[in-house]
Amino acid sequence: MDTELVMRARDGDQQAFAELAEFAYGRLHQVAFRILRDRPAAEDATQQAVLSMWRDLPQLREADRFEAWSYRLLVNACNSEFRRRKRTLPLVGRTPEHEAVAQDDFTRLVDADQLERGFATLSLDHRVVLVLRYYLDLSIKTIAETLDVPVGTVDSRIHRALTRMRDALEEPEIAVLAPGAVR
Fold first, then answer.
1. Same structural domain for residues 83 and 113?
2. What is the DSSP letter of 43?
């Protein structure tokens, strides 16, 4: 992240903020979708996070912390969006890899669906730490700073989330037939 751009935006340069927001928007939206598993909810959360960035950027003291700070704003927006929608987000979100599936990719689709169902059983806090850790590849320390929680809390949430995912994956599968298969 260009700290010069962040500092200019923080000082009120609207063009610098526009560049910053354009750079961050796609990344934030992908993270929001992976947390919320619903495209409209992710879009709303991302827009709210960008608005918060605009409003709160003058208070950001360390320009080099912009990325972690923007993730914190996004996680807060995801939490608000999740509560606002009264936990009615779909059980299984449609990710791009689900959209056009060849028959020889069927096994991979079933595996992805099983993982998706397991992920859907997690609390939002557990989804957040898994996305930050395994999608963004952030360190435990960085996640703790981003979420403003102790390192032990992040460790505990990751452990519990992975345990819950394993339990969900070990539950008996629903028998699914490949297209055109006969019982």
1. no
2. H
DSSP H or E run through 50: helix 39-56
Q: What is the pLDDT of residues 100-158, one digit of tens each?
A: 444 446 667 767 777 788 888 899 999 999 999 999 999 999 999 999 999 999 999 99
Give the pLDDT confidence score for residue 127 in this predicted structure: 93
Q: Which helix (H) or strand (E) holds 112?
A: helix 106-120
Say whether both 76 and 99 belong to one domain: no
Cα dihedral 104→91→96→162 (10° resolution): -80
- What domain range is 10 assigned to? 1-90
Burial 73-104 (b: 16+ CB within 10 A, else e): bbbbbbbebbeeeeeebeeebeeeeeeeeeee
- Per-residue pLDDT reduced to its tens digit, 68-91: 999 999 999 999 998 887 655 454
Q: How far is CA 74 from its chain centroid?
A: 9
CA distances from 22 to 28, 57, 106, 136 (A): 10, 15, 36, 19
Report which of 143, 118, 124, 144 is spatially closest to residue 132, judged by C-alpha positions.
143
- The burial class, CB within 10 Å (0-12 / 13-18 / 19+), for 111 is exposed
Q: Choose the final residue of a domain: 71, 90, 109.
A: 90
Residue 118, pLDDT score: 83
